[in-house]
């Protein structure tokens, strides 16, 4: 007979406490006189343990590390670079409780805490020796014997007339029963980070592997596909997104080569070739934060529109949208997605450099929209999501418009994105935006922290109303212009309030 507890590693501290508890005859008393059912003792894969032996044979030092080793794949898989799923077979001894099949459902609700949870492992199995019974698989890290049950659990067992008699069952684990992190921890060199997170873009898992993971890249890709339903392709980023169109250079690690992705974001559908355009699922909250600011009838200029995640929700809100992207592939998919989401009649699409877009179509539209004589109630927003460079493009607003300035509340609101590595990122972004505009933004701007991109690198969005002094050409001194509101020009290097917080 195998000694049941020896197989399940528990910490010395816990064992001491349990030992002390069970030296009293009252603790053992309720098991006195019970005998192991013969048919269970003889069932294949099952070894009964003798509760009376447990505490005298248990070694004092068992570590929690061993607890996690229990469900680790076999050590032989260490260093594997070509995935051999058959090498992950392993047998572990788990405690089981034999119960009548009629009470299984009621019992399982009460035993949630201690029931075994493994991917692809049934927690209740047929009893090979008795068609009327079932075996409930328990977590060996939580159940040492009958005394491991909590009061409430014991009470349900009693109500259902189940004797908390634990047997040992040899459970065969295969590749399917391990989690991706357990697999990678077992395969990659010991002590190295195995983080297996990825961005999901439709059927594509987009990984960003570290150098030490590269020798295992194909295996990692395949594990991601195997363990994540719906993922059929795994790619690794092979450059730092510094090319003009912000798309990633990527290598297919495993699975299909097809990079045509279909994604849902905030209830809209987007289709695109992920190898040729920019898409980041981590921006969905930011896309809705901005589009939530818009009201029906507002005008949105999206200078770096990508495949449409600001433009399409805005058009769906009945805004008039002007969307632009320099990448011909983004432009193509932007057109496609506007049709797909049935907003093509509300979005005017351009394939221009951002500066040309601002100085061409945006200028022409603003000249009309901001004409002081027209009665206009709706707002104008300009979104500029090219965080590596958008601030440079702010200079295109300088003296963009001629004529009499519109009233302050009708001036366009700019949402301009930027990265910052500075200790005070909000101040850094405010300072650089002001320098590009040639005007202080003072308190008239708010800076929103979008996300932490890398250690010490933040992505931020500065929002501000374009000052009339920036946007409008000063009008020549002319007695006819004397009714115009004065356009006060400010110095570029004006000081900013200290400690401006992210808002
Ligand atoms: C960071 S992506 C943002 C795309 C989209 N707005 C989003 O939130 O997913 C920046 C986009 O700007 C485009 N782009 C890069 N340089 C540009 C330029 N000079 N003029 C216009 N678009 C540009 C890229 O092709 C890319 O689609």
From TrEMBL:
Q: Where is this region: Disordered?
A: 476-503
Sites where the protein binds S-adenosyl-L-methionine = 287, 325-326, 353-354, 385
Q: Does the keyword Mitochondrion apply?
A: yes
Domain of life where this protein originates = Eukaryota
GO annotation, cellular component aspect: mitochondrial matrix; nucleus
Q: Which GO terms describe its molecular function?
A: tRNA (guanine(37)-N1)-methyltransferase activity
- Basic and acidic residues bias spans: 485-494
Q: Which GO terms describe its biological process?
A: mitochondrial tRNA methylation; tRNA N1-guanine methylation
Domain SAM-dependent methyltransferase TRM5/TYW2-type: residue ranges: 198-468
EC number(s) per UniProt? 2.1.1.228
Q: Which SUPFAM superfamilies match?
A: S-adenosyl-L-methionine-dependent methyltransferases
The record's keywords, sorted A to Z, are: Cytoplasm, Methyltransferase, Mitochondrion, Nucleus, S-adenosyl-L-methionine, Transferase, tRNA processing
Q: Name one Pfam family in it.
A: TYW2_N_2
* Record bears the keyword DNA repair: no
**Location in the cell:** Mitochondrion matrix; Nucleus; Cytoplasm
The UniProt entry's coiled-coil ranges are none
Membrane-traversing stretches: none
| Reaction catalyzed | guanosine(37) in tRNA + S-adenosyl-L-methionine = N(1)-methylguanosine(37) in tRNA + S-adenosyl-L-homocysteine + H(+)
Which PANTHER family has this protein been placed in? TRNA (GUANINE(37)-N1)-METHYLTRANSFERASE (PTHR23245:SF36), TRNA METHYLTRANSFERASE (PTHR23245)
Q: Briefly state the protein's biological role.
A: Involved in mitochondrial tRNA methylation. Specifically methylates the N1 position of guanosine-37 in various tRNAs. Methylation is not dependent on the nature of the nucleoside 5' of the target nucleoside. This is the first step in the biosynthesis of wybutosine (yW), a modified base adjacent to the anticodon of tRNAs and required for accurate decoding.
Q: Subunit notes for this chain?
A: Monomer.
Regarding protein family, the annotation reads:
Belongs to the class I-like SAM-binding methyltransferase superfamily. TRM5/TYW2 family. Belongs to the TRM5 / TYW2 family.
Protein name per Swiss-Prot or TrEMBL: tRNA (guanine(37)-N1)-methyltransferase
Q: Which organism is it from?
A: Oryctolagus cuniculus (Rabbit)
């Amino acid at each position: 007979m195998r000694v049941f507890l020896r197989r399940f590693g528990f910490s010395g501290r816990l064992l001491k406490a349990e030992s002390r508890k069970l030296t009293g005859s009252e603790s053992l008393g309720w098991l006195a006189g019970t005998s192991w059912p013969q048919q269970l003792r003889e069932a294949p894969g099952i070894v009964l343990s003798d509760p009376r032996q447990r505490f005298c044979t248990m070694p004092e030092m068992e570590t929690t590390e061993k607890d996690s080793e229990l469900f680790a794949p076999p050590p032989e898989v260490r260093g594997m670079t070509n995935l051999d799923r058959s090498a992950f077979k392993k047998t572990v001894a788990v405690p089981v409780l034999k119960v009548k099949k009629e009470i299984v459902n009621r019992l399982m609700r009460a035993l949630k805490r201690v029931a075994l949870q493994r991917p692809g492992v049934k927690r209740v199995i047929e009893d090979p020796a008795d068609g009327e019974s079932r075996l409930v698989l328990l977590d060996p890290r939580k159940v040492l014997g009958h005394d491991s049950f909590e009061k409430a659990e014991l009470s349900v067992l009693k109500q259902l007339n189940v004797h908390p008699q634990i047997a040992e069952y040899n459970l065969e684990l295969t590749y399917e029963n391990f989690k991706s992190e357990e697999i990678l921890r077992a395969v990659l060199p010991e002590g190295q980070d195995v983080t297996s997170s990825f961005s999901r873009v439709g059927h594509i898992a987009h990984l960003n592997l570290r150098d030490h993971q590269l020798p295992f890249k194909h295996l990692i890709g395949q594990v991601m596909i195997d363990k994540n339903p719906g993922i059929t392709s795994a790619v690794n980023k092979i450059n730092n997104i510094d090319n003009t169109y912000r798309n990633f250079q990527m290598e297919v690690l495993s699975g299909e080569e097809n990079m045509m992705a279909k994604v849902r974001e905030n209830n809209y559908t987007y289709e695109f070739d992920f190898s040729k355009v920019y898409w980041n699922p981590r921006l969905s909250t930011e896309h809705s934060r901005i589009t939530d600011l818009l009201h029906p009838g507002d005008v949105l200029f999206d200078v770096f529109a990508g495949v449409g995640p600001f433009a399409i929700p805005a058009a769906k809100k009945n805004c008039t949208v002007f969307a632009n992207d320099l990448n011909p592939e983004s432009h193509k998919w932007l057109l496609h997605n506007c049709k797909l989401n049935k907003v093509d009649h509300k979005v005017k699409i351009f394939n221009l450099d951002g500066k040309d877009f601002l100085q061409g179509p945006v200028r022409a539209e603003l000249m009309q929209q901001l004409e002081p004589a027209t009665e206009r109630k709706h707002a104008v927003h300009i979104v500029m999501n090219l965080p590596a460079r958008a601030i440079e493009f702010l200079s295109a607003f300088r003296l963009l418009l001629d004529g009499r300035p519109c009233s302050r509340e009708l001036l366009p609101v700019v949402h301009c994105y930027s990265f910052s590595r500075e200790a005070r990122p909000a101040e850094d972004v405010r300072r650089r935006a002001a320098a590009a505009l040639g005007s202080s933004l003072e308190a008239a701007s708010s800076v929103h922290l979008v996300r932490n991109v890398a250690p010490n690198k933040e992505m931020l969005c500065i929002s501000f109303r374009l000052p009339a002094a920036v946007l409008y050409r000063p009008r020549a001194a002319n007695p006819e212009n004397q009714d115009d509101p004065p356009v006060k020009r400010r110095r570029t290097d004006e000081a900013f309030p200290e400690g401006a917080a992210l808002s």
